[in-house]
Design goal:
By secondary structure, the chain is α/β, with parallel strands linked by helices. It contains 9 helices and 19 strands. The protein is globular.
């Protein structure tokens, strides 16, 4: 069963039973505004003018009290139960966008990276078509709601999707993956999504900044940038932050790929000064945005930034770039996950 959805722009699309308005629109090639696709950012606000929907997350942080009073809802959290007319601000078309596909994915390999971070590798029935820096939504058995994870590999003909995932204390999804997942297990993978992907036609030097498992999309962006011949003469930086020295996995990851090792200019910071001292860490100590400022302060406006990490890191970094150094917003790329 599917429902007919009509927008105030006169554009219509079908939404399959159980699918959200946002995912169905993107599958149909409709250019809905969005970022996180998980209820946090508020970019996909709509108004349902007629028809009925089920809201998957009452009280989602993407809606303010003012939004609720005005009758606004989040397309990423709305599942239609009838045909609907909706009001939405469509964004300008991007002919390069890839329509997301929902597919069964089989886990075929798990690689430990640190004590609490690993790479989970899946194969799907559908083609592995995505842009470097995008993410997919995984539906895990017994876990309510989808979880968004960014791909660390590049699009390929082998149907492979790799995700660097961090084991979050008390995190239901990560606990399932780290403690109970086995090779051969199957999940539902829906993607690709995300707007913070590599823009290869931009000729500024590239800066990737990551914390924790935010390293996953940045690894894909680094690989794609190194392969892009138009960027042969550009500098490519990676700034990575962890709490302890044991979290700093980037030297090993880069040295395992000769192309990355030769091209990437890498800097790392440990935020816990006490542990850094105890473990005789000889590198930089502090937050990763402070390290970025220390190394590139005089030239920040000359770079293109790709950012992924914990919300406090992303907030501090974007504020510093945009407010203190006046880096144009169009040079700062990140997907808001909260």
């Amino acid at each position: 069963m599917s429902y007919k959805i009509t927008t105030n722009h006169g554009v219509g699309f079908d939404c399959a039973e159980g699918d959200t308005l946002l995912r169905a629109a993107l599958r149909a090639g409709i250019h809905f505004p969005y970022e996180c696709n998980s209820g946090g950012c508020g970019s996909c606000k709509i108004e349902v003018m007629s028809g009925s929907v089920t809201n998957l997350w009452d009280g989602a942080p993407g809606l303010s009290t003012r939004d609720v009073l005005k009758g606004r809802q989040l397309a990423c959290q709305c599942v239609p139960t009838t045909d609907c007319d909706i009001k939405v601000r469509l964004k300008s078309a991007d002919s390069q966008e890839i329509a997301p596909v929902r597919s069964i994915a089989r886990l075929y390999k798990i690689e430990r990276i640190t004590d609490d971070m690993a790479k989970f590798c899946f194969k799907t029935e559908a083609d592995a078509k995505f842009k470097a820096g995008q993410f997919a939504l995984l539906d895990l058995p017994g876990i309510e709601g989808s979880r968004g994870y960014s791909m660390s590999n590049l699009a390929n003909d082998a149907h492979e999707w790799h995700f660097i995932i961090k084991n979050i204390p008390n995190g239901k999804a990560s606990t399932l993956l780290f403690d109970h997942a086995s090779v051969g297990d199957k999940v539902i993978l829906d993607g690709p999504y995300g707007l913070a992907y590599l823009k290869p036609n931009i000729t500024r030097d590239i800066v990737c900044v990551a914390g924790g498992s935010g390293l996953s999309p940045e690894m894909a962006i680094l690989k794609a940038a190194v392969e892009e011949t138009g960027l042969d003469h550009r500098k490519i930086y990676l700034f990575y932050g962890g709490r302890t020295p044991d979290d700093i996995c980037t030297p090993d990851l880069l040295s395992a790929d000769n192309d990355l090792f030769e091209r990437i200019i890498s800097f790392n910071a440990v935020s816990d000064a006490d542990i850094a001292k105890k473990e005789l860490w000889t590198g930089d100590v502090g937050f990763v945005h402070e390290l970025l400022e220390k190394k590139l302060a005089n030239t920040l406006t000359e770079h293109e930034f790709y950012i992924c990490g914990p919300p406090p890191m992303t907030d501090a970094l974007t504020r510093m770039l945009a407010m203190e150094y006046k880096v144009p917003l169009e040079q700062i790329h990140y997907d808001r996950f909260y």
